[in-house]
Design goal:
about 240 residues; mainly alpha; 8 helices; about 75% helix
Length: about 240
């Protein structure tokens, strides 16, 4: 009979999930590079810039929310092979799930709430509407900043937790856990070193994250460590 995981479900090869993680990681960079940036010398020009980029804004942030969801699916399947009832693995799962909620909220606020706030003002905006929109946009940007920062911090915690679990898993390659610790540490350092998050300042954080996703994808595709035994058992039907 096929081998079963600790969750009681059939354990099959995660190689396709590894391919998905690798592809989605690249798409995350593409989405971030296409993140719209508002320009202008005054508030009225910034509002006009946001209004002109509404379509791209919504497309990019919807794509980012979908990407976060797919990454979460891949990482949950990865963690299931490490043993979900281990403390470090469970801590990683909870942290990554929290990160998904925070980052999707940030993406929806940035991509959909902000353009709606801008659209409440006519073009050109009246002084009263301009003042109200400015106050609401400042609140929205503060929320986006901290939702994103806390979400990325939660991902760093998850990466470190899973890396420790990999190091303590006898069948897993130790280099994967060591590289994961480095990726999580670099991500945390980049977050603390950045006073204000922007699409460009996030590239360093994303680079560390993508390095981790590619490590996990390599383990899944090569069927090494916890993935090798599950793939072999499922293939042999023993």
């Amino acid at each position: 009979m096929p081998a079963e995981s600790s969750l009681g479900t059939v354990r099959s090869s995660l190689a396709p999930v590894g391919v998905m993680l690798a592809v989605v990681s690249v798409l995350a960079v593409v989405a971030l590079l296409h993140h719209p940036v508002a320009h202008g010398n005054d508030t009225a020009q910034i509002l006009a810039s946001i209004r002109a980029q509404t379509g791209m804004d919504q497309l990019v942030h919807a794509a980012m929310a979908l990407i976060f969801g797919l990454l979460t699916v891949g990482m949950f399947l990865f963690a299931s092979r490490l043993g979900v009832w281990r403390f470090s693995v469970l801590l990683g799962l909870i942290s990554f799930g929290l990160a998904l909620a925070l980052l999707v909220l940030a993406a929806m606020t940035d991509g959909f709430v902000v353009p709606v706030i801008v659209d409440t003002c006519p073009s050109p905006p009246t002084p009263s509407c301009l003042g109200e929109a400015t106050s609401l946009l400042r609140l929205a940007w503060i929320q986006i900043e901290f939702l994103t920062r806390f979400g990325l911090t939660a991902i760093a915690i998850a990466i470190v937790s899973w890396s420790l679990a990999l190091i303590r898993t006898p069948a897993a390659p130790r280099w994967a856990g060591i590289c994961g610790l480095a990726a999580g540490g670099l991500q945390a350092a980049a977050l603390f070193a950045t006073s204000r998050l922007t699409a460009h300042s996030l590239l360093a954080v994303m680079a560390a994250q993508i390095a981790w996703y590619l490590i996990v994808a390599a383990l899944m595709i090569s069927r090494r460590g916890p993935f090798a035994a599950a793939a072999t058992e499922a293939a042999s039907g023993s």
